[in-house]
Amino acid sequence: NGIQLQDLVQLGKIGSGNSGTVIKALHVPDSRVIAKKTIPVENKTLVKSQLIRELSIMQNVKPHQNIVGFYGAFYTASTTNEIVILMEYMDCGSLDKILSTYKRYLSRGELEFRDPWFNELVLSKISFAVLNGLSYLYGHYKIIHRDIKPSNVLISSKGFVKICDFGVSKKLINSIADTFVGTSTYMSPERIQGSVYTTKGDVWSLGLMIIELVTGEFPLGGHKDTPEGILDLLQRIVNEPPPRLPYNPEFSKEMVDFVNRCCVKDERERSSLQELMCHGFIERYKSQGEREFRHWCKRIKRRIKEDKMLKREEKERAKLVSR
Ligand code: ADP
Ligand code: MG
Fold first, then answer.
1. DSSP three-state, residue 148
2. Which EC numbers does the record give (predicted)?
3. According to the model, what pLDDT value does residue 177 have?
C-alpha cells in the first residue's frame, strides 16, 4: 500500500515554491502518476525525525474529496538532507497557474478569452470546496491550514477542487520560514500581530484569494522582496481598510457580501467556516452547476496544454529572430 521511492520514475518538473520543488513522477508498479515534493531541511537528525513524526499526522488524515491525497513522507539518506512528500497529482494544477495561463491568453489578444475564466459559478464551487476541506481538517483533526493561497488550491480535469500543504507541522513551517518570502502574503491581521490563530485566519486568506481570481491581481499590492518592503506590506494589512472587490454592476450581491464577510479585519466579526458554508453565494450553486463545473475543468486542461504549445512556439520564434 505504501509507495516506495525506488518505484518512482521522474516525469518532469511541475513547479517550485518557497519551500521546495514539485515534480511529476510515475509510480511504476501501478502506473499511477503522482506528485513528489522535495523540501531541503537542516541537517540535524533531531529536527528531521521530528518533522517526519509531524508529517505522519498527515498520514492519519482520512481521504476527503477536498483534500489532496497523501501517499507518504520520507527523509532521504543523510547526504541529501531533504524531506520528500508524495501526494496525489492534480492535472489542472493550482489556481495561480490557471490565472497566469488566462493572463497570457489575454495578452496574446485572444478575443475568445475576454470573458472571465473565473465566473461566479466557478468561484462559488471553489469557495465551497476550500471551506469544506478546511472544516473537515478542523472538525476531525483540529488542524488549521494556515497557508490558503492560489498555489495551494488544486484542480483536476475530473472536476475536483482540493487543498494541499496544510500546516500540520509548525516545525516544518518554521524550518523553512517561507511565510515572508514571495511578493504577496495572505496572512490575516491577527496573525501578523501575533494573536491566537484560528480557522478564521484561513477565511481572510480565502477572501483575498477570491478578489485575486476576479481582478487578476493580488489585492493588497505587491512589495519589494526586501525586509523594508515586506514590513510595509504587513503594516498595510494591519493599518489600512480591508480589501474589497472593485465595483462592478454585474457582480451578484451574494458574491460581494461573501467576500466582504471574509475580508473583515477584526477576527471576532469575521464570518466562521460554518457561517460561510450556508451563505447565499454558496447555497445558490450548491445543488446545481455540477456538470457545467466539470466542463470548465476539462476546458481548463485543454487551455493549459494549448498554452504550453504556444509558449514553446513563441520561444522558438524568439530564437529565430535573434539569429
Ligand atoms: P507554492 O505552493 O508556494 O507555490 P509548492 O512547492 O507547494 O510551492 O508548489 C509548487 C507548485 O507545484 C505549485 O504552485 C503548484 O502549481 C504545483 N503543485 C504542487 N502540488 C501539486 C500537486 N499535487 N499536483 C499538481 N501540481 C502541484
Ligand atoms: Mg504549495
1. coil
2. 2.7.12.2
3. 47
Residue 94 Cα to ligand 1 middle (Å): 7
Ligand 2 center from residue 17 Cα (angstroms): 7
CB 214 less than 6 A from any atom of ligand 1: no
The interface predicted TM-score of the complex, written ipTM, equals 0.99
Residue 19's pLDDT is what?
Answer: 74
Cell of 159: 472536476
Q: pLDDT value at position 176?
A: 47
Distance of CA 223 to the CA centre of its chain: 20
Residues with Cβ < 8 Å from 261, sequence gap 6 or more? 207, 270, 271, 275, 276, 279
Q: Residue of the nearest CA to atom 11 in ligand 1? A: 15
To the question of whether residue 37 is assigned a binding role by annotation, the answer is: yes
Going across the sheet that includes 153-155, the strands are 93-94, 153-155, 161-163
| Catalytic residue flag (residue 147) | yes
Q: What is the distance between the alpha carbons of residues 309 and 190, in angstroms, rounded to a whole number?
A: 44
* 60-95 confidence digits (pLDDT tens): 899 999 999 999 888 776 566 788 899 999 999 999
Residues 87, 88, 92: CA angle, nearest 5 degrees: 125
Positions of the chain with pLDDT under 50? 175-178
Q: Is the CB of 23 under 6 A from ligand 1?
A: no
> For the sheet containing 70-75, what is the strand order?
8-16, 21-27, 32-40, 82-88, 70-75
Catalytic residue among 147, 165, 202, 307: 147
